[in-house]
Amino acid sequence: MDKRERERPRVVLGVSGGIAAYKACELLRRLTESGHDVRVVPTASALHFVGEATWSALSGNPATTEVWESVHEVPHVRIGQAADLVVVAPATADLLAKAAHGLADDLLTNTLLTARCPVVFAPAMHTEMWENPATQENVATLRRRGALVIDPAVGRLTGVDTGKGRFPDPAAIFEFCRRVLARGPRAAEQDLAGRHVVVSAGGTREPLDPVRYLGNRSSGKQGYALAGTAAARGARVTLVAGNTELPDPAGVDVIHIGTARQLHEAVLKAAADADAVVMAAAVADFRPAVYTTGKIKKVDGQEPEPVSLVRNPDILAELSAERARPGQLVVGFAAETDDVLANGRAKLARKGCDLLVVNEVGETKAFGSDGNEAVILAADGTETPVPYGPKEALAETVWDLVAPRLAETRP
Ligand code: CTP
After folding, report:
1. What are the residue boundaries of the structural domains of the chain, listed by start?
2. Residue of 204, 279, 322, 360 best suited for mutating to test ligand 1, as the one with most atoms within 8 Å of CB
3. Ligand 1 centroid from CA 372, angstroms
4. What is the mean pLDDT of the chain?
5. How far, in Å, CA of 330 to CA of 358, rounded?
6. Per-residue pLDDT tens for 302-361?
7. Is 73's pLDDT higher than 60?
8. Residue whose CA is closest, atom 12 of ligand 1?
9. Does 312 contact ligand 1 (Cβ within 6 A)?
10. Which of the residues 79, 97, 269, 305 has an alpha carbon 20 to 30 A from that of 59?
């Protein structure tokens, strides 16, 4: 094996016996095409849905189910030991139960016992099975032990039923895995496990009439990066998303809103039991004083009516002043064009939040791009500069500052 080969991150894709096994083929494809060395370990039931030939052809590796094949290579130990990430997708109720109880009656369950790397489960099953207390307790046990269990999506299930239990979009599961792997040696350290974090993202739109609105250029990328990285660090995440083109991240509870007042209501509700709230949304400070129910028409020979504006609630200031629970951490963002640091410091004091991520914006800076540069100001006087880099790196630094502060107040 040459060096380039060895440098490819090794992923074990465990597949258990659910109809969503066919969607795991797309996850496999994305993993291999992005340079991962993937070994598929299906259960015997999974092979009823998708055969061995598909798994081995798509992965370029043998896809074995039992511990009795190639015994001289000790696969029941080696595969788990060598992995950088194990992802079980779909994970059935039966597989979750076996994993929670440490059963090891096939190659996949053996691999789960020997893996020392991060383990991600993407459950998919009928709503009744997901909500059954037995499944819920198994999920809680796995999470307590450090596994990352992605909550299933809500939507169409096998047959005509709909509900919670749907396999999340394979592209979103891939993103989740990519984020976990990107954390490198820190991936196993889930310092936000057991925490509920609320993140707002994207821009609000304030309607003037049924077809027009006042909006802003926020892409939502920074807020989505914060939500995705928090989930990869084990948090339960509620993402309150303003208008953005971005797909919903896997395992994150996404609430879509339009206006600042809808954002206000959704954030306050989600914040009631949150450990931390991060306001990355670009909230309109003002909205048109009057909403015209019919389309505003031009009238020949007449000047247009001026648009008068009224203030929207300042959500960050309100969250900071009235903490929903003791020790709740509130983080704000400040987009500044001039006197960036001085304005940032003044804003931190004015808003009363614990951390303020200050970045410089302009025609070509921050909005819509994949990178960001910032200084994170803390109420205790510390300043953390974050050099230009991916928005995910800034998101990680925000959580690096949040996690120890949370541990101080509520270990
Ligand atoms: N924010 C908010 N509610 C608003 C406006 C802003 O919660 N009505 C939050 C944003 O999500 C961000 C922070 O406040 O976290 C800073 O927003 P920014 O627009 O940069 O600051 P402003 O308070 O609007 O100050 P100014 O317009 O003077 O720059």
Report:
1. 7-187, 190-407
2. 279
3. 18
4. 93
5. 14
6. 999 999 999 999 999 999 999 999 999 999 999 888 888 999 999 999 999 999 999 887
7. yes
8. 333
9. yes
10. 97
Whether the domain at 7-187 and the domain at 190-407 fall into the same CATH topology: yes
| Residue pLDDT, tens place only, 74-112 | 888 899 999 999 999 999 999 999 999 999 999 999 999
Q: Which CATH architecture has domain 190-407?
A: 3-Layer(aba) Sandwich (3.40)
Span from the CA of 369 to the centroid of ligand 1 (angstroms): 20
110 catalytic? Reply is: no
Among the options 110, 132, 138, 216, which is catalytic?
216
Measured CA to CA in angstroms, residue 249 lies from 1, 151, 270, 305, 338 at distances of 35, 11, 17, 42, 33
Q: Does residue 281's CB lie within 6 angstroms of at least one atom of ligand 1?
A: yes
* Residue from 351, 357, 367 to probe ligand 1 pocket by mutation (most atoms less than 8 Å from CB): 351
Q: Is the CB of 333 under 6 A from ligand 1?
A: yes
**Single-letter amino acid code for the residue at 81:** Q
Q: Is a pLDDT exceeding 70 seen at residue 363?
A: no
Q: What is the pLDDT of residue 2?
A: 45
Question: Which distant-in-sequence residues (6+ apart) come within 8 Å of 95 by Cβ?
Answer: 14, 16, 43, 88, 108, 109, 121
What is the average pLDDT across 53-68? 94
